[in-house]
Amino acid sequence: MKQKVYQGMTFVPYIENSAIMERVDEIAGKISERYKDRKPLIVCVLNGAFPFAADLFRRLDIDAEITFIRLKSYEGTSSTGVVREVLGLGADIKGRDIILVEDIVDTGHTIVNLVDKVKALEPASIAVATLLFKPEALQHEFTPDYVGFSIPKKFIIGYGLDIDGLARNLPDIYVVKE
Ligand code: IMP
Ligand code: MG
Predict the structure, then answer these.
(1) Which ligand 1 atom sits closest to the C-alpha of 105?
(2) Whole-prediction pTM
(3) Please, which of 3, 105, 130, 173 could form a disulfide with 15 given CB 3.0 to 4.6 Å?
(4) Cα-flanking dihedrals φ and ψ of residue 73, to 5°?
């Protein structure tokens, strides 16, 4: 692995794909145990979570379903970034055991807002699995149920995480060079 350059910023290797896969295995094991006989509905939050959700889903050894939602943000018109429309969130939530799968929880605005919207659809239960978590950036009372890696407040890319739409295809995760 070597350095990558996007938008004039240099990124250095941070978490190798093999380490990601080990954590995904562990999380899949925990979910499989906890949701045995529950047939959970995995809800992948597009775009960033798709590699994590795919790898996680493949490793579940219980019956489970998967669906996809997308958040439309209005960053130009909202100071907080909280005003978001959820595309694809349907009636299939009611009475189900929902596991929201996110790539990263940063301030927590996105996930807290989404959890509220999903709760309004009356699921039987709701849990959050996030590959990455920046505890120092969190601005809400919120604890993800499953965390791949807790990381410092630094910008990262790869394995689904983007910089202006690019770098999602990198198998490894990179961090911006200080
Ligand atoms: P929030 O601040 O927790 O609402 O995070 C919102 C979104 O910001 C995430 O879903 C990501 O799309 C993006 N994000 C936060 N931190 C990073 C990062 O380090 N790299 C790339 N995207 C990030
Ligand atoms: Mg995201």
Answers:
(1) 3
(2) 0.94
(3) 173
(4) -105, 155
